[in-house]
Amino acid sequence: MDPARVRYDREGSAVGGTAQAGGTGRREGRAYIGSFTTGGGRGITIAAVDPESGALTPRSAVDGLVNPSCLALGGDGGVLYAVSDADPGGVAAFRAADGELRALGPVTGAGGSGPTHLSVRDRLLLTAHYTSGSVGALPLASDGRLGGPPAVLAHEGSGPDTDRQAGPHAHQVVPAPGGRWVLSVDLGTDSVRVCTAEPGTGALRLHAETVLRRGSGPRHLAFHPDGTTVYVLHELEPLLTVCRWDPAAGRLAALAEVAVDTDGTPDGARAYPSVVRPSADGRFLWVAVRGSNRLLTYSLAAGADAPRLASTVDCGGSWPRDLVTDPSERRLYVANEWSGDVTWFDVDPESGALRRAGAVEVPAAACVVFA
Q1: What is the percent of the chain with per-residue pLDDT over 70, rounded to a whole number?
Q2: pTM summary value
């Protein structure tokens, strides 16, 4: 693959070179923004990050991949991986250097259709395939290139929602802290599976399955920094499940359910929670809700297993699909798919509350990753 390149500055004009921030000599940071090309997105947008204000400035875009809706960095940040959320699904690897992305070989089959998520575990690239309801693992070469063929584990089961849960729909796959276990979240079967992945081949084997509330449609999970508390966010029912993770046994157990606030959802519409993110210091938890287009801040002052809603704020756009903090944890960035922008918020260090600080146009934005 030799993807075409399009370059932008703030007004959409051609630019080049490596910018410095505000003439201070401090080098800009870098962010990569994935988008849905079938929805008008540019592919993977490369943006400069101002070290003082956190403002994003699109510099270029790689548009040779269909629907790179999820991105992940590997190889100590030197390789960017992207899904191609299509049928058949694929993945691609890029060398990231000097504000540019260069393809590391061709697009590779992921072993399933509609891949929605990917993550890196040692020398394996893990993928979750929503349409085919499976998870896969691709070996990675020492330079980050994709190997193959992919090892694939098909999920089985269904749920009570006949429109959305007629079969399995793997939505996310992540390595647990320590790297021994792999967890996959399945919206179609209302469950989280724990697998092992063999080094080298990536062969996946089912170890355990935790069934959650029927019809809730789990979509996304995140580990608290303590390594033993897991938050599972549900899409079909506005719900957050707090779980206990046993890293020795590789078992996940549900402890409590917390209703997700849906105030602001228009009459006759539904709210669809999308992503949950704990703060790096473990004091806060942020949740994005599509439909109400709100960002929720939960306090964990009472304990990691006892989130309490502390504040809410408008996401600054429509259909917040992803949210992530920058490396400093001073700001939180939101990819608003339907309004086609990325908004960012200053984080209050005492309360975790969010205050909108800026926005940039990124059509069909799906995810943000910081270098």
Answers
A1: 93
A2: 0.92
